[in-house]
Structure formats: C-alpha cells, structure tokens
Structure of Aldehyde dehydrogenase:
Amino acid sequence: MTLRPADSSALLVDGKLIPGSGGTFEVLNPATEEVVGLAAQGTASDMDAAIGAARRAFDTTDWSRDHAFRARCLRQLCDALQSHLEELREITIAEVGAPALLTSGPQLEGPVADLRYWADLAEGYSWETDLGTATPMGIATRRRVFKEAVGVVGAITPWNFPHQINFAKLGPALAAGNTVVLKPAPDTPWCAALVGKVIAEETDIPPGVVNVVTSTDHRLGAQLAEDPRVDLVSFTGSTATGKAVMRAAADSLKRVFLELGGKSAFIVLDDADIAGASSYAAFSVCMHAGQGCALTTRLLVPRARYDEAVAAAARTMAGIRPGDPTEPGTVCGPLISARQRDRVEGYLRLAVEEGGTLVTGGGRPADFGRGFFVEPTLITGLDNSARVAQEEIFGPVLVVLPHDGDDDAVRIANESPYGLSGAVWGTDPDRVGRVVAGVRTGTLSVNGGVWYSADAPFGGYKQSGIGREMGVAGFEEYLETKLVAAPATA
Ligand code: NAD
C-alpha cells in the first residue's frame, strides 16, 4: 500500500474507513499557505458512533484481557508505520510545517519506534500482585491486586507534535487494554487519519478498538469529555482548554489526564559558562519555531552578567533564519497558522508596550512572501511580572531576566502558574542540586541532559497538568486497580 494525502480524508469508526458526515475540510501547508488536500469533516453523529464502537469493543471482546495479542498488534502497527516512514515524513512536513530534521526524532521516527516500548510493557508488566494473607476482622483472607484497563479512552491532541502526542496516548492506552477514540487538532488531521488507515488495513487491531474522528469542530472534543460512555479523557493542549475539559468531564466523574502549557525557566548559575549556556537556550527555543510546550522560554541569568548573556543569545538567534521545513538544515520552520502567527506578533507588540526591547528579530522575515514565519526574537529589559514572561507565547521567542543568586533564580522560576519543565546550568553539583530541588516542575535538564524518552515520565506541576505521560507512570494512568479478597485456605 502507498499512502497518499487523498487517503487521509476518512474517519476510522468501528474498523471501517468512512467519509465524514460533514464532508471535508482543507488542509493547509503552513510553509506555503497552499491547500495541500482534504480531511474528513467528522460531526457529532460520527463522534457518537465512534464512542459507541469503542464502548462495544471494550465491553464485548477480550481485547482488554489478551495481553499477548495486544503486544503483537502494537508491534505490527510499529512495523507497518515504519514501512511508510518516507510517506509519513512528507505528509508530516507538509501538514505540520515540522522541520525535516525533527522527523528523524520526536516529530515521527521516535514515537513510531516507541510503540515497541508499549508492546514490551503489555507483555512484561506485573498485572497481578499477591498481597499474601492477613486477618482483618478476624477472617483469614488472601488478597490479590489486579491491574485492569480503565475502559474507553477519549484522546484529544494538539497540532505541534501530532505523532509524538497521538502515540504517547495510543501506545500506553492500547497496551493497557483500553479502546480509544482519537480526536486530533483541526490543523493536523492527516497525521492521525493516516494512522487510522494503517490500523484498519495493515493490522489485526479489532474493529472499534481504535477510532479516529477528524474535524474542525472543537465541540467534538467537548463531546468526548462529556460522554458518560468514555471512562478517561486524555488531553494535551492549552491550559485554558484543559480546564474546560476537566469541567466537562466532571458530570460523569471520569478520570482526567492533562498535559498542558508551560513557561519554563532556563537557569544559568554564576559559575556556568554564561555565553555558552545562553546560546544553547537561544538555539533550543527556535526549534520548530518555538512550538513546544516544554521549551525553556525564560532565560534567567546572573544580573552582573546580563549583557554578556544577551549578546550571546542575540548572536545565536540572529544566526537562525526561519526556513523551508523540507530543507535538511532548517531548525526553525513556520508557525502552524495565520492565527498562531497573529498571536505571536501580538505578544511581540505587547513586549514593547510593556517597556521591553526586541534585541533581535521582532517580525516576519523579509525574504519570505508566503508562509506563517516569524523571526527568532529576543526580549530584554523586563522583569518576571511582564505578561510576556508569564504567558505562553508558543513562538520562537525568548525573554531574558536577571537574577540575584541561586535562591532568587528559583523564586523567579517558580513565580509562574506553570510547572512543566526547565533547565539548570552550573558547575558546582551541590548548588545545582539545591536549585533542582527548589524548582517545581515535572522535568528538568541539567547542563544539557535530555529528559525525553519512552521510559521517562513527562508531565507538569501546577497548571501544566495532571498525571504523567510516557514510562511506567504513563502506562499506569490508563489502568484501574482491583483488589480481590477471598478466604485463605489453610
Ligand atoms: P488547544 O487547547 O487549542 O487544542 C487542543 C485540542 O483540544 C484540539 O484537538 C482541539 O480541537 C481540542 N479542543 C478545543 N476546545 C475544546 C474543548 N472545549 N473541549 C475539548 N477539546 C477541545 O491547543 P492547541 O492550540 O492545539 O495546542 C497548543 C497548546 O498545547 C499549547 O498551550 C501547548 O503548551 C499545549 N501543549 C502541551 C503539551 C504538553 O505535553 N504539556 C504538549 C503539546 C502542546
């Protein structure tokens, strides 16, 4: 089979690839602003059918109990996707504007390969634990703990790393024995639709176990969160939408798993290589045009070395030209949409209104007639109370803030509604250790260490989310615990 964009204009409902009841909608290439094809327009009735199919598949098949079969299906899916990598790469670059460079890692190949990690967990996990015998209330009782799938999972995902986020939900949810309805973001329907097609045509995953409903209608996400047939809603997106999902899920008291926004701090201590660290921070915020929830978008540097840090960061950012994502050397591609570019440009205007200086960048690159590109931009001259230091911008924008020592750096890092990620650079391990212990975030990189991998739990403190994705912790989000007590036989 060869995947073509035209193949992606179908929903997957109950094992069948079907047209959307609402017709189709256009998919834009953010680097060229051209319509590259059509996606299926799912409606509330399609979503209703998808939820019904997932419920039936969970309640009436032994998918949730056959661990070996699920492991086999996940490996089969991994193999099938790997046989389509080049087509998927092309489509991912066209739809997401993802730099080709990143498709060798987190934008495609990494999360596809990680499906094997989930398959291994399905097989190797301790599904049953013997607690032994106790005599509560005088009755000798043998207690066993069973881990079981939660049931039907509603997965709602954003556009910035669609494969990574779709598979970070599908992988553990399926490995744990759940059935899934996936609703991807309106800007990136193809990445999910093509996975649906591969599942339908090239795997033994039974009908109804995975359903994919693409749509421009955000209300389909709310429908998933509300529907009492859904047992768990797993959401990645903005904090504002995460709160709406939690509210919608409250009536049926379903389990809620949230991966939300961030405004992470990159802390440089005064014994670090200030210029090297600042340059590294500036480079990393330009990756995928800054459209990463865990990017460190506040650079905290010693006050006495502020100018040195700014000069190094500005040099790096000025050297990164936004570019065609199909080019192998491109790091900073386009933003996903005109709406997102407007939002980022609005924040750049706000930075100036707040009294800040745009040291480099600040607008659209002059050499692009088309595409939603924004120049890497460095903001200085503000403190941490500025809105551009508090709010998530989701563009290639870095704010440099001065700190007055290690404790002050920790205070500033924590002065945020978010708590997703961060970085600490310094040479004294004791000082670095104290800063690491003080920062309230779910992941931290020390001196360039990489926290992202299939077995490493990822998630946020505070308003960056609830729960952990990836790793055993991420797998267990999709499990219930059943304690079975029976009289102990002598
Ligand atoms: P978004 O919140 O606008 O949309 C995310 C998804 O939610 C989309 O599929 C959308 O259709 C759906 N949705 C919208 N309204 C809904 C509602 N009321 N009920 C249910 N679903 C609804 O986010 P976005 O703009 O697509 O993505 C960018 C945001 O995602 C950023 O804030 C970023 O930080 C965050 N993000 C977080 C992580 C993480 O792991 N923490 C990862 C990637 C992106």
User: Anything to note?
Assistant: The domain at 5-260+464-484 is CATH 3.40.605.10 (Aldehyde Dehydrogenase; Chain A, domain 1). The radius of gyration is 23 Å. Residues 156-160, 165, 183, 185-186, 218, 221-222, 225, 236-238, 241, 244-245, 259-262, 293, 392, 394, 420, 460, 465 surround nicotinamide-adenine-dinucleotide (CB under 6 Å).
